[in-house]
Amino acid sequence: MPRATATRHGFGRAARAFHWLCALAIVAAAALGLYMLRLPAGSETEVAAVYRAFSAHKTLGIVALALILARLSWTLRHPGPGPLHPARRVETFLADLVHWILWGAMLALPVTGWLHHSAAPGFAPILWPFGQSLPLVSADEARALEWRTLHRAASWLLYGALALHILGALKHALVDRDATLARMVTGNGPPVAPARAGRYAAILAAALWTATIAVSLRLAPEPEPDPFGALNGLDSLDGIDGFGEPVLPGSAPLQ
Fold it and tell me: Cytochrome b561 bacterial/Ni-hydrogenase domain spans which residues (predicted)?
């Protein structure tokens, strides 16, 4: 982040607007994602409802990604106010760590979702006219399963960091009774130095994300085997017995 010498009283209008719009888009996409996974799919009508819910979820994810990128660009050029209690080093470090994890989750969730959508095309399109697949991402079931596993892992990190973020805001509002929450709601607060990136918190968050990616890739399921794979390369039905099973060389077909 750029260095600045002027003090800050609170977050400006643009920063507050980006914060709350991003929060609304993320919560809406996450809530719809949890809801759609519980929808029944026993009839054509129910399957159509699942299809629409997935399309809406993916579209909300793209909207959230656009807002997050715009907010990131703004934040890099306009740092907000620093902590009200810089002497509380542990509390400040934990707040920085949660913010870094949140930034990672806000970017990772829509990106991995879009990568999964690109690698597993044909179901529930994104509701926009600009194409469905990302460049250089071809249809690949194994890659799609990896992106889906990463997407789910990122969602759990988001839920945990978001819960801690909300608890921290409530702690400042109800226990400390300071202006931490007011700075993001009204823009008012005491003058403090501009915020600076927490280096060690960023390093720890990066390590956490690296471990999450490594574990997710290791735990990603393998593609289901093709039940008709044994038929590939057969020129006729001469090598198939009466039950539709291929006959191994040197064996007699079942009668």
Answer: 11-187
